[in-house]
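Holo model, magnesium ion. Inputs:
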Amino acid sequence: SKKRIAVLAGDGIGKEVMPEGVRVVDAAARKFGIDLQFDTFDWSSWDYCEKHGQYMPDNWKDLVGGHDAIFFGAVGWPEKIADHTSLWQSLLLFRRDFDQYINLRPARLMPGIIAPVVRRDGTPRQPGEIDMYIVRENTEGEYSAVGGRMFNGTEREIVMQETIMSRHGVDRVLKFAFELAQKRAKKHLTCATKSNGIAITMPYWDERFAEMARKYPGIKTDKFHIDILTAHFVQRPDFFDVVVATNLFGDILSDLGPACTGTIGIAPSANMNPDRTFPSLFEPVHGSAPDIYGKNIANPIGQIWAGAMMLDFLGHKDAHDAILSTIEKVLDPKSGAPKTPDIGGKASTTDLGKAIAAAL
Ligand code: NAI
Ligand code: MG
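Output:
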């Protein structure tokens, strides 16, 4: 049956990488006989906001709520609008209102990319040595709207913001992480915590983790406080398989993980509602990158890989695997394929996107 994809390119390099994401997803759909329809929208962007005073129309849920997935570029135009305003008027509304409670972010060292983190003996990490998934809680935790500000502008000024953890919310992300670890060769799940310093919510998170672990005796588990965990990511990224974290810690780890693999330009992010009561949203990890926008030099692989995760979620693992192995093939220096500047080449966004579509 036909699958309908809502396409929201958004701001900055979102507008440059999205055409390449669509190009490759479309090529995969043709190859594997998947019937896809792309519906493109101009909202969820500063251009729209400038005219209408908000990032999205009031009826955004009606416009895309019936789609099978949302393919998302990036939002944010800091020169014109505060980052927290653009994010809370678009991406964060999708994550919350569509209950996309899992944010899944792979970090994998690809061929042809030099990892900035080396082994203890100083030799370079090889593809396959870094291959992990970060599972980030995506709807509650530290990113809550509960809090306030008092005595504005006076010496008595007070601000506070609460962390929210519900048993339902914590258990469902932990369960997803254990299930994912179960499917992986290493069957190893790491819990990111900070229960030494954050003495109410984080011990609860640890407690629920231990409780869930009892149901998965086949999974090797461990737990690190977030501060030392970031150090381990840099010093021994090969140790990790699946890492589960709260909203804030997961946000940080899922930039750090891909950065350890050389560039955030290739990293994808799946905002998933595994229950499928609402559409899930697939996007690159990176933002709108105003510093390079307009030059057509952004790496489109983050968007393309996000497209592969979208096809996987829609039931086409074969198409996902084909896109991934094509990305690996094209990145391999032996392929002679064009590379964008962030991975050491001189090619354009379009050149790299076309090369991947052609190789597929
Ligand atoms: P950013 O990810 O846009 O850029 C960080 C750095 O990485 C920049 O130097 C940029 O040139 C580089 N970079 C990013 N993507 C790249 C790619 N595909 N190829 C090559 N280089 C790439 O993060 P930044 O600068 O903190 O934020 C810029 C705007 O994007 C802000 O408005 C921010 O709020 C927004 N943002 C939006 C996100 C989203 O829509 N999911 C995520 C992160 C930031
Ligand atoms: Mg982030």
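The longest helix spans residues 14-32. The mean pLDDT is 96.
Archived with the compound record.
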